[in-house]
Amino acid sequence: MTTQFRGVIPPVVTPLTASGEVDKASFVRSINRMIDAGVDGLFTLGSSGEVAFSTDARRREIIETVMNAVDGRVPVLVGCIDTETNRVIEHAKAAEELGASAIVATCPFYALGGMEEVERHFRLIHDAVPDLPLFAYDIPVCVHTKLPGDLLVRLGKDGVLAGVKDSSNDDVAFRFLADDNAKAGHPLTLLTGQEVVVDGAYMAGADGSVPGLANVEADGYVRMWNAAETGDWDAVRKEQDRLSALMRIVTVPQDVAGFGAGVGAFKTAMALLGVIDTNQMPDPVLPLKDENVKRIAAVLRECGMELARTPDEVSASTEF
């Protein structure tokens, strides 16, 4: 069931209009661009997809837009991320209704519990939606709990989890997880959420990657995956070196942190490249402007990417 979830599966950025509505035309343009590049799937309503900023109605609109644009060409994983189990199950049932290929959930957050509650959380989600593969989303920077490898492998062996999307930025823990998963017979599909050390994750045994930077440049990640599949590690390293340089777009904004710097940089780069119409962000996050847009444009040029719009045009594209 999980063999379809290998390769490059970008976490789709959700484009917004200047007034903060879902920009469906830009959304379709971005999705087609990644599929044309050869990605193996798409992950909507992850962190890059603004799941934490979206009402239930907005989540449904995003899923419907993605499913209509994809039209069965690649599998679509849907983030069902919320503070507690019953809310996650509601999102999962909506995703199933709308045709999701798999669902992705973090552990509970806000009212933090122990590992017994975390395990129960994933088991209850699987029991409620048994026909959809369930991926655990390990992102401790947002949910303040690191998912332990022994728990993940146990849930994989029990058929609760189909895989893990690892955004822990803990390369040692990921390597141990890959080793333990292999020893257990590979019950889990392991996807790294990294952009900069994807090459190391592939060497450790990752089954694919979920790089947010692929919204900006998917071709390189597809080439890197194809090279890894054939064991051409020199080509893997060269692609990773180039993509690592491009990832500097998230480090150059000044006086901005977190989501506004990371996804804000992705959106700004996509707007500069003409992929989406604005770099608008969800409230209360402000879009990048002026000098920060110019800094991102400079990185794109240094990496050989041709701009379709000027920094001033992008800065003027939003209402805030």
TrEMBL record:
<dbReference type="InterPro" id="IPR002220">
    <property type="entry name" value="DapA-like"/>
</dbReference>
<feature type="active site" description="Schiff-base intermediate with substrate">
    <location>
        <position position="165"/>
    </location>
</feature>
<comment type="similarity">
    <text>Belongs to the DapA family.</text>
</comment>
<keyword id="KW-0456">Lyase</keyword>
<dbReference type="InterPro" id="IPR013785">
    <property type="entry name" value="Aldolase_TIM"/>
</dbReference>
<dbReference type="Pfam" id="PF00701">
    <property type="entry name" value="DHDPS"/>
</dbReference>
<dbReference type="InterPro" id="IPR020625">
    <property type="entry name" value="Schiff_base-form_aldolases_AS"/>
</dbReference>
<protein>
    <submittedName>
        <fullName>Glucose dehydrogenase</fullName>
        <ecNumber>4.3.3.7</ecNumber>
    </submittedName>
</protein>
<keyword id="KW-0704">Schiff base</keyword>
<dbReference type="GO" id="GO:0008840">
    <property type="term" value="F:4-hydroxy-tetrahydrodipicolinate synthase activity"/>
</dbReference>
<feature type="active site" description="Proton donor/acceptor">
    <location>
        <position position="137"/>
    </location>
</feature>
<feature type="binding site">
    <location>
        <position position="210"/>
    </location>
    <ligand>
        <name>pyruvate</name>
    </ligand>
</feature>
<dbReference type="GO" id="GO:0044281">
    <property type="term" value="P:small molecule metabolic process"/>
</dbReference>
